[in-house]
Structure formats: C-alpha cells, structure tokens
Specification:
The complex is a heterodimer. The radius of gyration of chain A is 18 Å and the shape is globular. Chain A is built from 8 helices and 7 strands; from the N terminus they run E-H-H-E-H-E-H-E-H-E-E-E-H-H-H. By secondary structure, chain A is α/β, with parallel strands linked by helices. In chain B, helix 2 links the parallel strand 3 and strand 4. Chain B has 16 helices and 19 strands. Chain B is an alpha/beta fold. The longest helix of chain B has 17 residues. In chain B, about 30% of the residues lie in helices and about 15% in strands. In chain B, the strands form 5 sheets. In chain B, strands 5-4-3-6-7 form a 5-stranded parallel β-sheet. Classes of the chains: A alpha/beta, B alpha/beta. Chains A and B meet through helix 4, helix 6, helix 7 and helix 8 of A and helix 2, helix 4, helix 6 and strand 8 of B. Bound molecules: iron/sulfur cluster.
Chain lengths: ~190, ~475
C-alpha cells in the first residue's frame, strides 16, 4: 500500500447518525468476488431512485462533491455488518478519510487496512464541520491532527501501529507472517 | 493472583505476543469460520502472495448468505436466479478445494447458517477464540468463547497465519436479574438491552452477560442474546460456561469425547469471572419488568414494548427521518399496525427451539389473508429435526413457505426479498433501511410475536396466542 501522510480536501457532509454499512454498500452488491468497481454502488439506495436515476439532492450527486476526499458523517458511522465492501466502496469512490465523533469498531479496522483514515474528533469540531460543508481541511497523519480553514488544529487518536503502517506503507500481513516463530512456539506451548 | 474477568482469561490464553504501546497483541485464533461472501478477496490475496492456509484443521467453511432457499434452485435443478451469487458459490467451492479447507457445501447434510452450525456440530467450544468474516460471530460467545467478526483483509491474515493483530477491548458487564414473564423471550431481552445501551453504546467493548436471568437461559436463548451484541456496537458478547453449556456441547459430533472430554471440561470449569474482578463499565436490568418488544425504526436500538406507543421526540431529525422511512407516526401504537410479510429465520432465531415456539402459536391456525409467511430453518440439521417433529406441517398448514436453510430474508442478497414499502415482522437482527430489500420496512421481534403477527395480519400480542 502507498504511504499516507497528508490528506487535503474539501469535505462532503452527511450528518445522519448511525450510518450503517448496509447503507454504505447494500447487500445485493456483495456477490462480487473482487474489490474493484464498488464505488459506483456506494450509498446506492440513497444515491439512486427506484429507476436508477441519481437523486438530485443527495450530497454525492451535487457538483460540489466532485473530487472531495473527506467524508464528514454523523455519530457512529459504520455500525452493523462487517463487510469490508463498505471501505472498498468509499476508497474506490475516492474518499481517503472519514470524520465523525464515533466510528464503529469493525468498520474502523477495515478502513485502516485499506488506507481510509478514520478520524474521530470532539463534538464541537464535529458540529462545526457539519455546519460548514465543503470547507477545505488538512489531515496530517504524522501529527494526527486535522486543521480547519481558520488554522485551528484538533488532534485525533490513531492506534500507534496502524499509524506506523500507514505512514510507511508497511503491510500488516507481512508483519504477521514474520511472527511465524512466535506463532509456532505458542502452538507448542499451548498444545495447539 | 488478582481477580480477573472471563474475557481477560481467554485473552491471555491466546496471546502469542502481548500488546505494547507501539504494537497490538498477536492473538491466536482457535476456530476460523468462513463463508462465500467475505472470503473471495482473501483467497485472492493468498494466491497473489503464494501463501497456504496455515491451519486448515482450524478452518471450516459453509454456504449461507447468497445461497437460494428454494430447493430446486439450491440443488441446481433450475438455475440460480442471481448469476453473481451462483458465481460466488462456485468460487468458494473452488477456493476450499484448492486450499484444503473443509466445506460444508450445498449438498452437505450439515450445511447451514455459519453461526448456527458451529455450535450445533460442537466445533464451537468454551474458552476458544473464534472469528469469522461476519459481525454476528458474537453468537458463539454464548459458550464462553471470545468470538467476533472481522473484515476480509483480516480473514486473509487468519487464513495465512491463524493470528490477528488486536488491541485489547474494554469490558462491559450487563447484569440481568428477575424472571422473564410469560411470552417474554431472549429476543425481547436483548432488544431491551440494546435500547438501553444504544446502537453505539458497546463500541470498543466486550460484553459479559451475567446474573440469574442469564444463568436460567438455555443455550439457544443465550445465543440469541449474544448474537445481537454487535447491534449495540460491542466487539463481542459472552456468557460464562456452566452446566447448561457443558450439557449442550457433550456428545455433539465434533465435541471432545472420552478422556479428551474430561480434560476439556476441567479447563472449561475455570472459565468464570473471579469474584471481585473489575469491569470497565456495568449496567443492570430487571428482566421481570420487560414485555415483548418490537422495533419501530431503522436501527435495532429503536424499539418499544409491544403495548407502548412510538416516542414523540420533537425536534429529533434522525427520529423523524427513520419514521418517515418506516411510514409510521410518533405517538402511534405499534399493536394493530398492519403488516404484509413475516420472516421466521436467521442466526438470531432459527434454531429448533425458536421453530417450536413459533409452531406452538401457529398450530391449528392460519396466516391472515394477504400475509406472506416465510419460515427458514437455521441449518439442514434443524430442518430435518423440525420435519421429524412435524413442525414443517404446522407451518405449511398455516400457509407458510418452508425452505432450505440459509440467511434468506435476513439480508437482501439471495433472492428472498421484502417488497418495497411492505412491513415485515422479522425474527432477524437488523432493521436497517433496505436490509431486507430496497424500501423494505423491518420490524424486529421474537418468533412468537412474529407468529402472532402472521395470524392477525397485524402486530399482535403473542401472549394472547399462547396455550
Ligand atoms: S442470518 Fe443474517 S445476520 Fe445471520 S449470518 Fe446470515 S445474514 Fe448475517
């Protein structure tokens, strides 16, 4: 995976709380056997009407959403199903970060593994971002800060190892494979 | 020795490498359950990197999510309607064969929903770490195992190394005391717990369900409760194993036997939270005060007791939006709401005891005119047992369709769908927008509440239908 350091982009705002992964990627698109092309189905049931036409007032269908890399969502985004198809779809569409006050566990894990940065900010910052859609923000992974247009910076937590992997393009699977001697020793010790 | 929680004991017993501030723990996985939907991209990574499945003996596969439940389609007598689903099934067959993973495939007599067959076959055992590319893996926590859902990248990691990188979660005790009233089931209990915690209330935590009420639950009921832990956002939910657990596991096809059983049992008996152990957080509930529950909104936390009205919440845009999708009004009574579909199935409530409970309500009665009633057993074993008891006849006599096992109408990806705008009383676990089909309106409830609704054609009180 390519290293990530700085994400600078305007925001797309979806203020709904509890946006579950069934909304991000409806189940009928889960029969795919690859990771590709899921961006076209992202938020399909909000983005398109019954006839498959774009819903004009849905935020991703508005011209100003074009090219945005940062999604600001209501509290507890990513709850529900463990489908990694949700972050695959967000990444394929072009998002590089998801900002909220709370991000569901499995979705957060899955996002980190795909170079989609989960950014949990405080309530006040979140409220401000929701109230000001489309502002340009700068997310700096190295310092774990999000900078608002007025220069204010707020910190966000990132698990140390995940950050190290993202910054350096380190592949977690490779790291785990390198644990083989420890795994073998554990299996012997635990009778497995 | 300091007093430790059950979670902590299982965690420590599976640390290959303990966590440090810089690195997460390397956690060993005892049992990896796999299915057709969340594995293709993981096997693709193994192939790209030239890796093998490290422990095929700790890996079991089945087909459940995208498989049709209509026998003719499932067994290939007529083509599967969804070509992409058919391709996914074939790909999983190929992957399992190539990588030496045991597959309880389409024609296997032990096939079923992944979280139903693990316990039923005795592969799920106390004290294990269990993962699966599916969030309802929390079900297996009913056995006092640490069981949680993972993404596809992690599925690949477990296939390749039998390990995962994990930060230690927090602990949350949910203490339940008091006897459940007549017609109040484990499903109602867990809906009440989720209502109390909120859909994000368990985020970052492993729940231990405790107290006399939990101890009195059967294994099937404990599975229903643990199954929905994820609906409160929890990583996992568990119940300490006890005589109920041991009696359930004993004699299962893949449970230890003979001397191995005695050895295993001795270990399992130590799987308790020590007196005085501290949880990061605790909540308590009085089960005696609960009534049958039903959801009215678009997440599992939005529920009321059957005889209550939908909360008003003026000024709450989220609430309003959910009710708009559901076509329901604030202040409205749920009892009497007309419904079109009833689904009895899923890994939450499609075990034999659930089917028996629903059949007891439906026996000698018929679904209301215009109601589609679908009953889908959790596994082929359950299907056969139910048929042996004649439950299938009770269902079909009541106007139901009785199908082959699978996830079915729990999620819209196998052809079993709720029509746009239709109300479906469902024994499954998620009432998200579109979960059961585009525009479908899901009302989550217990098997007896679902059966009562089928008969009445409206949301009805199951207690009026109990013998
Ligand atoms: S029955 Fe529903 S919740 Fe359970 S594994 Fe299948 S799709 Fe998931």
């Amino acid at each position: 995976m390519d290293p990530i350091r700085i994400i600078r982009s305007r925001t797309v705002v979806m203020p709904r709380t509890n946006i579950d992964t069934d909304q991000i990627m409806p189940a009928r698109f889960l029969t795919t056997t690859t990771r590709d092309g899921l961006g076209q189905h992202l938020f399909a049931d909000w983005r398109y009407d019954a006839a498959g036409r774009p819903v004009a007032d849905f935020v991703l269908n508005r011209p100003e959403a074009e090219g945005c890399r940062v999604l600001v969502a209501g509290r507890n985004i990513g709850c529900g199903s463990s489908r990694e198809h949700a972050p695959w779809g967000l990444c394929d569409y072009g998002f590089r970060a998801v900002v909220s006050t709370e991000i569901a566990d499995i979705f957060r894990n899955n996002s980190l593994k795909n170079g989609l940065l989960p950014v949990v900010v405080d309530e006040a910052t979140h409220e401000w971002l929701i109230a000001n859609p489309g502002v340009e923000v700068t997310i700096d992974l190295e310092t774990s800060t999000l900078a608002l247009p007025d220069g204010r910076r707020v910190g966000f937590p990132v698990e140390a190892f995940a950050r190290y992997c993202l910054l350096n393009g380190v592949d977690e699977t490779g790291y785990l494979l390198a644990q083989e001697p420890a795994i073998r020793a554990y299996e012997a010790r635990a009778g497995k | 020795m300091t007093a430790t929680t059950l979670f902590e004991k299982i965690w420590r017993a599976h640390e290959v490498v303990a966590e440090t501030p810089e690195t997460p723990a390397v956690l060993y996985v005892d049992l990896h359950l796999t299915h057709e939907v969340t594995t293709p991209q993981a096997f693709a990574v193994l192939r790209e990197r030239g890796l093998k499945v490290r422990r095929p003996d700790r890996t079991v596969g089945t087909m459940d999510h995208s498989t049709p439940t209509v026998a003719d389609e499932l067994y290939g007598r007529v083509p599967i309607r969804l070509e992409s689903a058919a391709r996914q099934v074939r790909e999983f067959e190929k992957n399992c064969a190539e990588f030496g993973v045991e597959l309880l495939g389409i024609d296997h007599p032990d096939r079923g929903i992944v979280h139903v067959i693990g316990p039923e076959l005795g592969v799920t055992q106390p004290g294990q770490t269990i993962v699966c590319g599916d969030s309802h893996t929390s079900t297996h926590g009913a056995f006092g195992s640490l069981a949680f859902g993972i993404g596809t990248t992690e599925v690949g990691q477990v296939l390749a190394t039998q390990c995962l990188l994990q930060r230690k979660p927090k602990t949350l005790a949910v203490n339940v005391e008091g006897a459940l009233g007549r017609g109040v089931t484990a499903k109602d209990l867990v809906l009440a717990i989720i209502q109390r915690l909120g859909v994000g209330g368990g985020t970052g935590s492993v729940i231990e369900y405790r107290g006399a009420t939990i101890r009195a639950l059967s294994m099937d009921e404990r599975m229903t409760v643990c199954n929905m832990s994820i609906e409160a956002g929890a990583r996992a939910g568990l119940v300490a194993p006890d005589e109920t657990t041991f009696a359930y596991v004993k004699g299962r096809p893949r449970a230890p036997a003979g001397a191995a059983w005695d050895a295993a049992l001795a270990g399992w008996k130590t799987l308790v939270t020590d007196a005085g152990a501290r949880f990061d957080r605790e909540i308590s509930l009085d089960a005696a005060r609960l009534a049958p529950m039903i959801t009215y909104g678009t997440n599992p936390g939005m529920s009321v007791a059957l005889d209550e009205t939908i909360p008003l919440r003026p000024g709450d845009a989220i609430h309003a939006k959910a009710l708009e999708y559901m076509g329901l009004e604030p202040g409205q009574r749920m009892l009497g709401q007309k419904i079109e579909t009833v689904f009895i199935g899923s890994c939450t409530n499609a075990r034999l005891s659930d089917l028996r409970a629903a059949a007891a309500v439906l026996k000698g009665r018929h679904a209301a005119k215009g109601v589609t009633l679908l009953v889908v057993p959790g596994s082929q074993r359950i299907k056969r047992e139910a048929e042996r008891e004649g439950l299938d006849r009770v269902f079909t006599d009541a106007g139901a369709e009785w199908r082959e096992s699978g996830c079915s109408m729990c999620l819209g990806m196998n052809g079993d769908l709720v029509a746009r705008g239709a109300y479906c009383v469902s024994t499954s676990n998620r009432n998200f927008e579109g979960r059961q089909g585009v525009g479908a309106r899901t009302l989550l409830a217990s098997p007896i509440s679902a059966a009562a609704a089928a008969i009445a054609g409206r949301i009805a009180d199951p207690r009026e239908y109990l013998a």
